[in-house]
């Protein structure tokens, strides 16, 4: 019996409405995920490597929202699912939005 999971579906930022992008970035957990990805080399962060206050099912949901908003790509490497922030593609679709989200205005 194989435990192979299907590859995640991705939405290109060109196909994302601005309200979807805003909604994805409005959640504090998703914003933290995006900020951590922005500070990491591409394809180095596995889903379980983020220090967020949610369980595995909720974390999976947050990654799905980020994929559907065109913010991240994911791929499976062995048993790990690794992530990449789609910085250039997202910036081309929504100039300046990601830079605003990444600012720490505490």
UniProtKB/TrEMBL annotation:
InterPro entries: ArsR-like_HTH, HTH_ArsR_DNA-bd_dom, HTH_MetalResp_TranReg, WH-like_DNA-bd_sf, WH_DNA-bd_sf. Residues 10-106 form the HTH arsR-type domain. It comes from the Bacteria. Keywords: DNA-binding, Transcription, Transcription regulation. Pfam families: HTH_5. This is Helix-turn-helix domain-containing protein. It comes from Streptomyces humicola.
């Amino acid at each position: 019996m194989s435990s192979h999971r299907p590859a995640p579906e991705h939405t290109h930022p060109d196909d994302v409405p601005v309200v979807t992008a805003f909604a994805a970035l409005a959640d504090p957990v998703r914003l933290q995920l995006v900020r951590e990805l922005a500070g990491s080399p591409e394809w180095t962060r596995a889903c379980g490597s983020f220090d967020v206050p949610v369980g595995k099912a909720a974390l999976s949901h947050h990654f799905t929202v980020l994929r559907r908003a065109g913010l991240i790509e994911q791929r499976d490497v062995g048993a790990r699912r690794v992530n990449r922030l789609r910085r250039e593609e997202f910036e081309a679709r929504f100039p300046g939005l990601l830079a605003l989200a990444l600012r720490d205005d505490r």
